Structures are given as structure tokens and as C-alpha cells.
Amino acid sequence: MEDDLAIAQPLARALEREGHDVQVAAEGKAALAQVRAGNQDLVVLDLGLPDLDGLEVCRTLRSEDPRLPILILTARGSEMDVVVGFEMGADDYVSKPFRSKELMARIRSLLRRAQVGELNTLRVQDVVLDAEARKAWVGTRELTLSRMEFDLLHALMREHGTTIPRERLMREVWHTHWYGSSKTLDMHVSWLRRKLGDSATDSRYISTVRGVGLRFESQSGE
User: Fold this and answer.
1) Which in 36, 105, 166, 191 has the greatest CB count within 10 A?
2) In what order do the strands lie in the sheet with 43-45?
3) By three-state DSSP, how is residue 45 classified?
């Protein structure tokens, strides 16, 4: 997202030489539309956009996708500018004028970190679970989960689309053998459904398969 073509075009060519598909947007609204329509791995963001302030674009992007790497590239280089940029959700901050090799190294570093993070991140429907940070979201809403609720959600999402027997869930989440009563499991499923905005009678996320177990649906039944 850069309105200065003298910067945007050489940077785009450098990224393309490294095998990346690059989209260039000169205005904030167009950039937001591109990100929402596509599947970007990283955003390089100038703050001096003609229609929207780049900080507002950064804040919006971060609220809509907590995992999207954002690098701010701007002429605003004061300490306060940098602090505000990070507070708005940037992962890195580079001031102009910049050194091309250093910028490319920072971009590669962010992409590597994102790839490592993907190994610990599950996305099913609009639910995102970060196993390393032990956080989960429905859309942009972060869930407040107990340890057992998180472990149960993780176990279900990890094998989404598959019915997992109750006995196995008890063993994996509670580290105990199942001796017939599933009251503890049922209570946690009920709490988890409520936090997801789900229900047992009209299940979107967690379905009960009678006599077998539970399944996290790969696709919404709506």
C-alpha cells in the first residue's frame, strides 16, 4: 500500500523476483478491499495514503485478521510514530529513506515467522485457534476460554469433520479413562457452544453424534 510509484514499483519487482505475487494499491480504501478479497501473506503499508490515514488502515487490518503480518514503511520516523505504529498492530516498522536489502530481509523474516505460526494455527469456518498462544477467535471476537474448554476446542478442531469418540476426548483432554459418565464432558461442550454462539439443537460448529461422540463441522450447515 504505497502511493509513491517510485517506491512501490521497484519494491514490487524485487518481491516478484523472489517468487511472490504482488498487488499494489495507492489508496487506503482500495488496499482494504484487496486484502479482504484476497489471501495476502503480508502487507507493506505506507502511512501517508491520500484517502485514509495509514494508521487507521493498520488498525482495521489488525482487527479483521490478528495473524496478518503488517510492515509499516513510512517517512514518519520519530520515536512516537514508531510506538503508535506498533500499538496500532504493526509487526515491524521501517522509516524512509530505507536500505533495500535490509527491507527485503525484514520482509523475509516476517514471512518465516508467519509460516511457523501457521503450523500452530487452526482455521475452521470462521473460528481461528492459536495453539501456541492458547487463544481462539470467532471472526474478530476473541473467546475467553478455560484451560479445559481450550483443550477441548483444540482436540475437536484438529480433526474437524471427523466424529471423535467420547472416550478418546476424555482421555486426551482430561487425561483420564472414561468409566461411563460423560457429565463433565457434556458440561464443557455446553459452555463451549455458548461461547461460540452455537447450540445443540441448531449446531453450526459442534455436532453430537448419538452413541458415538462429537464432531467439529468443517463447513457451516447454514
Assistant:
1) 166
2) 43-45, 70-74, 92-95
3) strand
pTM more than 0.85: no
The CA distances from residue 162 to 23, 44, 72, 125, in Å, are 37, 39, 41, 15
For 170-181, the pLDDT digits (tens) are 888 876 655 555
Show me where the domains of the chain are located.
5-119, 122-216
One fold for 5-119 and 122-216: no
The interaxial angle of helices 183-196 and 166-174, nearest 10 deg, is 80
Quick one: CATH architecture of 122-216? Orthogonal Bundle (1.10)
Q: What is the grid cell recorded at 17?
A: 523476483
Span 5-119: which CATH code?
A: 3.40.50.2300
